Amino acid sequence: MFSLQTTFVLDEERKSYVLRVAGKIHRGFRSHLSNFYLKDREGNTNAEPPKIYQHYISKDEWSAFVSKRSDPAFVVSD
Q: What residues does 45 pair with on adjacent strands?
């Protein structure tokens, strides 16, 4: 699995900043996937990863993402 900490050599003083920014960007990307690609217009869950991200997201990763986002514990109730 990809790890930012093992892929890049970071100074200790910049490490926490880089990881914090990367976490924010990753969280935003997950939200983008949920808002635009998780369900189609009829509200059905997409079984396949979005074509635009097929090279980055495997079918197994997409399935895990869909199951996590579909879990009632994850969904915010009004």
A: 39
| CA max distance for the chain | 48
- For every residue of 39-55, DSSP letters joined together read B-TTSPBPSS--GGGTT
What lies within 8 Å, CB to CB, of 66 at 6+ separation is 38, 45, 46, 47
pLDDT tens column, 14-72: 988 988 999 999 999 999 999 999 999 999 999 999 999 999 999 999 999 999 999 98
Q: Which amino acid is at 70?
A: S
**pTM of this prediction exceeds 0.70:** yes
The DSSP 8-state label assigned to residue 2 in this structure reads: -
Q: Which amino acid is at 77?
A: S
Name which of 43, 61, 68 is nearest 1 in CA terms.
61
Give residue 64's Cα distance to chain centre. 10
